[in-house]
Specification:
Chain lengths: ~500, ~160
């Protein structure tokens, strides 16, 4: 009998040999690479400019045709940038530092009615692509026909992806649909996003985050001035527009909440680097009536959903969890589900702590841990989550915060306790950000690195004092490996008593 | 070709200064490796094309990488995983690669067990036992610590042993 290794090697070779013969298209690859090089150099500005144009209602850029259609007018738009001072300081982004030659790009806009797309095709667009866009937009508009009239805007980028932005007539919702030239099916990248919500938007190989329609202007979008360590820097080519922040990074979720300050973590999957920074949302609610509302009431993170709009979708396409604090109902959704697929996962009476087994294929039988509901926080953990932890002291869970499979270790200390996670080994790293808030630690994922950042760390010198108890840990994306990585982590719970112990499996906490 | 290094397993650190040569050398092997990993040859082909396009776009950097094919594998795998999340098109075929073969593969129990592995475990298994790369090279390719490679392999092998026993 062969060893398993030999059996594996043979079996894998057989499977590899059975893969249908295929050949690559070198010429197509080169063409695609050349296109993207062009677009990536201008994608940020083009996208930002597109949204800015929409926001500021640049009707002057549109001119009616003789048939009464609104026809695209070409223009080149320079972004405006400004970042005023806040408690975190001031950072200014010099447009000249944006490595983009705008002269190469044109931005074409066309508005359409709710009946479908009626954009006169620019010369660069093929008839088939126009047909594709028209068809896709019509489908979308049909889908939402029961709602108030929508308008759609075709944003065409030269030589690469095309986007249709659809917004409510009342301006409260935005949907971004991508029509790649190279793929037949349109990709509805994002669901309907309430005004004020983030839109993840991939343009030309860049992953952008668009905070669309903030009630106020760029004064609400703040970059840390002490941009020394890369981990705390907003990427240099971030464009901050009036009311719109566009971050050319991969969005992995809102990792922490402090007041109306949102810690944004971005993960560049190719470079395996994590950048993080803080964005201060307006000091008022985001969308009180028609969307969702995030506020911090003392220690409570509140995610409120008005009737008819029962969930908040932080990352739009990735999914997550929402707890309706009024009803106690927790909703789950995932990356592939849409609003229609929103499921009522379980119900937790307000103020209670509960452990719930969720039998959901997408969630793969995770153990749901709801802790500190008096704080309005709801976490979901993966198998291995401590089921016996005393919630009065602390709780820990692996959390798929945004439904994308990336596991975040979330720890929460009970009232009067503080957490400190420490470990020293060769896997030390300082790449990610952990925000500690009154005993709550949210640890981001992205590789089996680990470090603890003390208040004296330069990474956090700019952080408010209430973030003193912060640290960093990066866990492997795969839960099992994440588990493996943190087996030796020591968790110290400081308070009336001190407990030290491993995180995983037994969670036997020794005093 | 500018560099060939040996390791405890099959050497993989072959670097190309010419994109065409690199493309010709890596495309088929990475396509097949990704097809076995993803269990979807269409997605694998798309993934390799996507990764190759990115490689061409960044060739000034990629050309200096020590394991260029490994970079293709990783970028292609990450892209495919991202696509799968979007489209939910994962298929757990009973044998082979998404049922694309006409004839059943030998040792169907093994392939069923492989299909039940998680994607990341299957990736390290494929790199280690199909491509015969060293743990160090697998770690570099996937940009994970070597210990994580060991962990994933151990868990994968344990699961396979259990299912095949």
């Amino acid at each position: 009998m062969n060893t398993l290794e030999e059996r594996l090697a043979t079996g894998l070779r057989n499977a590899s040999d059975a893969v249908p013969q295929a050949t690559g298209d070198l010429a197509a690859v080169k063409r695609g690479g050349q296109r993207r090089t062009l677009v990536s150099r201008g994608g940020v500005v083009v996208a930002a400019a597109a949204v800015m144009l929409i926001l500021i209602g640049s009707v002057s850029l549109l001119r009616p045709s003789s048939e009464g259609e609104v026809v695209a007018a070409s223009t080149t738009v320079l972004p405006t940038t400004s970042v005023p001072s806040t408690s975190l300081g001031t950072a200014a982004i010099d447009p000249a530092s944006i490595p983009v030659d705008l002269s190469e790009y044109e931005l074409d806009l066309a508005t359409v009615s709710g009946e479908g797309l009626r954009a006169r095709p620019p010369t660069e667009m093929s008839a088939s692509l126009i047909s594709e866009v028209q068809s896709g937009a019509a489908e979308i508009l049909t889908d939402i026909s029961a709602d108030p009239p929508y308008s759609a805007t075709l944003v065409q980028q030269v030589g690469y992806d095309q986007f249709v932005l659809i917004e409510h007539a009342d301006g409260s919702c935005l949907r971004v649909v991508e029509f790649p030239r190279t793929r037949p099916a349109e990709r509805d990248l994002r669901g309907c996003v309430p005004q004020g919500g983030p839109v993840a938007w991939e343009v030309g190989g860049l992953n952008l985050i668009v905070w669309w329609g903030l009630p106020e202007t760029a004064s609400q979008v703040v970059a840390s001035p002490d941009c020394g360590p890369a981990a705390m820097c907003i990427p240099e080519n971030t464009v901050v527009l009036e009311g719109v922040a566009v971050l050319p990074t991969r969005y992995t979720g809102l990792s922490a909440y402090e007041g109306l300050t949102v810690a944004l973590t971005a993960y560049d999957e190719e470079r395996n680097e994590i950048a993080a920074d803080t964005i201060v949302l307006p000091p008022v609610q985001v969308v009180p009536e028609e969307g969702w509302l995030i506020t911090l009431d003392g220690e409570n993170l509140l995610v409120e959903m008005p009737a008819g709009m029962p969930f908040a979708d932080f990352s739009v396409e990735r999914g997550g969890l929402i707890h309706d604090i009024e009803t106690g109902v927790v909703y789950s959704y995932n990356a592939v589900n849409r609003i229609d697929d929103l499921e009522e996962a379980w119900q937790v009476p307000p103020g209670e702590v509960s452990l719930v087994e969720v039998d959901d294929e997408e969630l793969r039988g995770v153990t749901a841990v709801s802790v500190g509901l008096e704080r309005g926080t709801v976490f979901v953990g993966m198998p291995g989550v401590p089921a016996t932890v005393d919630p009065e002291l602390w709780a820990g869970a692996f959390v798929d915060l945004v439904g994308d499979g990336e596991q975040t270790l979330v720890l929460e200390a009970g009232p009067g306790y503080e957490l400190l996670v420490s470990r020293n080994d060769e896997r030390r790293g300082t790449k990610a950000t952990l925000i500690g808030h009154d005993g709550v630690m949210i640890l981001t994922t992205g590789g089996c690195f680990f470090d603890t950042i003390t208040p004296s760390s330069p990474d956090l010198q700019s952080a408010p004092q209430e973030h003193e108890r912060v640290g960093t840990i990066l866990l492997d994306e795969e839960n099992s490996s994440a588990t493996w990585c943190v087996e030796d982590i020591t968790v110290n719970v400081f308070g009336a008593e001190t407990f030290v112990g491993p995180m995983v499996d037994e969670l036997e906490i020794s005093s | 070709m500018t560099e060939v290094m040996s390791d405890e397993k099959k050497p993989v650190r072959i670097t190309y200064s010419d994109f065409d040569a690199f493309y010709a050398s890596c495309w088929d092997e990475m396509y097949r490796s990704l097809a076995v990993t993803l269990r979807n040859h269409d997605l694998a082909r798309e993934s390799v094309d996507e990764a190759m396009t990115r490689a061409y776009q960044r060739w000034s950097s990629v050309r200096s990488y020590s394991n260029q094919c490994g970079w293709i594998y990783r970028v292609g795998l990450n892209w495919a995983i991202s696509q799968k999340r979007k489209t939910k098109r994962e298929v757990h075929a009973p044998i082979g690669v998404d049922g694309a073969v006409d004839e059943p593969l030998p040792d169907p129990d093994l392939h069923e067990a492989l299909a039940r592995l998680g994607m990341e475990q299957r990736a390290v298994v494929v790199l280690r036992y199909l491509l015969d790369w060293s743990e160090e090279d697998v770690a570099r390719t996937l940009e994970i610590p070597r210990g994580t490679v060991k962990s994933r392999l151990n868990r994968a092998m344990a699961k396979l042993r259990e299912e095949l026993s």
